[in-house]
């Protein structure tokens, strides 16, 4: 599954790239080269001025049946880790960071959002880990995967709103906005690192994917087919990315495999020379590996056997 990614673009760059019509970001996010579950992330979505979206800014009555007004493409900040509206405890979100494309329209946690609340999650690239043998021991080597042209990736996501009943309607924290990344099977070349990866939506399909009126799963699923675009490339990076507390552009610096070691400054697959950068046969509509959910503590342990989410 997808458990870590990088999102370092400036807010203004996202306005232009995703053709944002309504800005609902109150504070810019810092460039993040180590996005982990429960962190705040940018999300692109299309909504009208009614219901929780309007109440979040203006107040109003829950359950309003008035038709949506001023439908527009928005940029928001949401928390990674979906909390369904029916959840009793928002802590459930830390276990729902990925949704499998094969079952996203049938699982109770996701099916309502799949029909009505889809979004795009901007990313520069993502990380996956591969098992390697070194000095008689097995460890996991992180790889960074991104577009060959360094263009933006748009992960397919869903979002939900959870009402904190301990807060009054007009409180800024009355509604918690959360998100989940949809994953799919990885192509052969990407599959050598992990068998799953995030689903990436081609820009030509953004409008249909975000359209809340497009609520028939039979019409939505075809949008999740692999996009015909230039492919992805991958290369090994240092193990500093294993720790949530580490951040900065140095995390995506190619690793010099010729020196061996653990990968803090060097290291990688034994026997390889130089930083290996290679194409991933997948296209930008195919997913990233479903990595284990990063723990919300300082250290991420890719060796943990229990996945954070198997939805």
Helix content: 10-25%
- Which ranges are low-confidence, i.e. pLDDT below 50, for 5 or more consecutive residues? 55-65, 265-277, 280-311
> What order do the helices and strands follow?
EHEEEHEEHEEEEEHEHHEE
Give the N-to-C terminal Cα separation.
10 Å
What fraction of the residues are assigned to beta strands by DSSP? 25-35%
Helical stretch tally:
6
Structural class: mainly beta
Principal-axis shape:
globular
Describe the largest sheet.
8 strands, mixed
Overall pLDDT level: 79
Number of strand segments: 14
Rg value = 19 Å
Structural account:
The structure is a single chain. The protein is mainly β and 311 residues long. The chain contains six helices and 14 strands. It has helices at residues 11-18, 51-58, 111-116, 188-191, 206-210, 217-220, and strands spanning 5-7, 22-23, 32-35, 40-47, 72-80, 98-100, 118-123, 125-134, 137-147, 153-163, 175-185, 196-198, 232-236, 278-280. The strands form two sheets. Strands 2, 4, 5, 6, 7, 10, 11 and 12 form an eight-stranded mixed beta sheet that branches. It has a six-stranded antiparallel beta sheet with strand order 3-1-8-9-13-14. A hairpin with a 2-residue loop joins strand 8 and strand 9. The longest helix has 8 residues, at 11-18. The protein is globular, with a radius of gyration of 19 Å.
């Amino acid at each position: 599954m997808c458990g870590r990614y990088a999102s370092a673009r400036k807010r203004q760059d996202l306005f232009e790239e995703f053709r944002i019509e309504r800005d609902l970001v109150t504070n810019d996010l810092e460039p993040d080269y180590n996005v982990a579950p429960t962190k705040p992330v940018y999300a692109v979505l299309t909504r009208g001025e009614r219901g929780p979206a309007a109440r979040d800014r203006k107040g109003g009555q829950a359950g309003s049946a008035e038709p949506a007004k001023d439908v527009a493409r928005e940029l928001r900040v949401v928390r990674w880790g979906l909390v369904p509206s029916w959840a009793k405890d928002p802590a459930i979100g830390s276990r729902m960071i990925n949704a499998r494309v094969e079952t996203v329209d049938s699982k109770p946690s996701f099916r309502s959002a799949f029909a009505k609340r889809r979004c795009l999650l901007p990313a520069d690239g993502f990380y996956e880990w591969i098992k390697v043998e070194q000095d008689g021991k097995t460890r996991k080597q992180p790889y960074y995967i991104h577009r060959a042209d360094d263009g933006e990736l748009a992960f397919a996501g869903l979002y939900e709103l959870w009402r904190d009943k301990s807060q009054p309607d007009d409180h800024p924290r009355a509604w918690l906005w959360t998100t989940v990344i949809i994953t799919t099977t990885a192509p052969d070349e990407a599959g050598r690192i992990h068998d799953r990866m995030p689903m990436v939506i081609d820009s030509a399909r953004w409008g249909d994917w975000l359209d809340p009126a497009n609520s028939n799963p039979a019409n939505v699923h075809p949008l999740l087919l692999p996009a015909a675009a230039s492919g992805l490339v991958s290369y090994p990076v240092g193990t500093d990315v294993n720790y949530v507390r580490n951040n900065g552009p140095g995390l995506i610096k190619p690793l010099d495999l010729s020196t061996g070691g653990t990968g803090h400054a060097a290291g990688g697959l034994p026997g390889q020379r130089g930083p290996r950068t290679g194409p991933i046969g997948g296209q930008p509509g195919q997913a990233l590996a479903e990595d284990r959910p990063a723990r919300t503590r300082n250290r991420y342990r890719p060796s943990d056997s229990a996945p954070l989410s198997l939805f």
